[in-house]
Predict the structure of Erythromycin esterase family protein.
Amino acid sequence: MRRYFTKEVLFDEHAAISTIKQKAHPLQSKVDLQPLFNRIGDSRIVMLGEASHGTHEYYTWRAHITKRLIEEKGFNFIAVEGDWPDCYRLNRFIKGYDADNKSAFKVLRAFNRWPTWMWANWEIIALADWLRQYNIGLAANKKSGFYGLDVYSLWESMESIMRYLQKTDKAALKVAEEAYHCFEPYKKDEGQAYARALQFVPELCENEVVHLLKEIQRKLPSYNTDHENVFNAEQNALVTVNAEKYYRAMIKGGPHSWNVRDRHMADTLERLLTFHGPNSKVIVWEHNTHIGDARATDMIDEGMFNIGELARMQHHEKGVVLVGFGSYKGSVMAGRSWGAPMHSIQMPEAEKGSWEYLLHKAGAANKLLMMDDFMTDVFMENHIGHRAIGVVYNPRYEQYGNYVPTILPMRYDAFIYLDETKALHPLHIEPDGAQMPETYPFGV
């Protein structure tokens, strides 16, 4: 019997593999997901993770789960790790409100910020087409939506605000233009220059974006246009305020910028739930490092939290189900560095001793793990490495930084293990920008 040390105590690999063999559900077809749907029950929030931002099967399995939740359990919208303006355009398309764009392909081609492949891919086109068809004939308040939770779209959000105010409020437009002009000298490199300048002029554009948000919020009752467009204007103003905070946090380094970002995503999710009503339900698509409870990883040692942890704390009574994903080997779409061309990169077999290694050793087949079945000492007393691949990936260095020490039964409510996976299918768009926002860790 092979034994080795993990973070805490002597770990019995044989016992772990034996338990997985006994407790894991075979996942040979979509029908085998029924234990997961039973676990979801009447929960309000279901978060679907991914161990990379470029794996075909993560997208297709999540799409299947999403469709069933919408059709069978009345889920109202999808919220993803994407920019608000881009995702809002897709939202308008799938609801039939966009007269200019006649296809999901055309809408998704406009997702032109690197890494473009995260949402500009054929897997999302298929889901968007299904959502558009599903929404036909439904009342406005019954249509399923699609929204972005992220904080990176400072300039796109401000441009969206100005287009909206040009039609609705010329006085407030002047406030928006002042904020935009303040940031304009720093536009070319995704906030890096702004973050550097803050070291010498600590306030810079903070007052302008806060003033813009207050002005829009003050005048919201007078905007009598499409109610969702009014919400969109306020959300874009919030993005500008929190993006400025994010770039400010970049100066300090460490976990603070991560926390600013995930707090923004959690707050945006809360706003969307409120907007859709007290009985609304949401499906969240994000990387495992965001949706898997941070308290079950070494992230907590750095003072980091994430949207999965915050959702569990805030919505426990109404039900939150966190679903992780992982695979043992295959290929993945990623870049060798930030802004680099996208490639299908071969992903090596998982490191020995990792969760993915143990799951493979328990049988080279797909599995569904319901975490209530794994609350045993062998798993609960050890932080075991769990693979995490971001948009930047170099498999030569995987063992040094692509594994998050994790207590899996505490991090997720369910886990979908896919033994071998392949890269997703991008639309091959040339990105507009190549500067890396300082995300921590793994560029996720």
In short: The CA atoms of residues 27 and 33 lie 7 Å apart. The mean pLDDT is 90. The two ends are 37 Å apart (CA to CA). The chain has two domains: 3-81+281-421, 154-255.
